[in-house]
Design brief:
single chain; about 80 residues; mainly alpha; about 85% helix; rod-shaped
Length: about 80
């Protein structure tokens, strides 16, 4: 007596698929946002270290930190 019609079952299946898609997109967005925050923090720290290396005229540190900054920019896709 509690059987659902084919149409009802199809609607339920479609609703479930939509929820799964929405959850996937939401999880993807959160992951992208967290990655962006992490890269931004790393970049800011490196920029501060580069400024300190310039102020202390430490060419070796400057070059090393600059290479690391280039890698960060590659991760950003710029």
């Amino acid at each position: 007596m509690n059987e659902k019609s084919y149409t009802e079952l199809m609607k339920l299946g479609a609703m479930k698929r939509n929820r799964l898609k929405e959850n996937f997109v939401q999880d993807l967005y959160i992951d992208m946002l967290l990655s962006e925050i992490q890269l931004t923090v790393e970049r800011e720290k490196l920029l501060q270290k580069i400024d300190a290396a310039i102020d202390s005229r430490d060419k070796k540190s400057f070059l090393l930190l600059s290479m690391q900054l280039k890698e960060i920019y590659k991760k950003f896709g710029t």
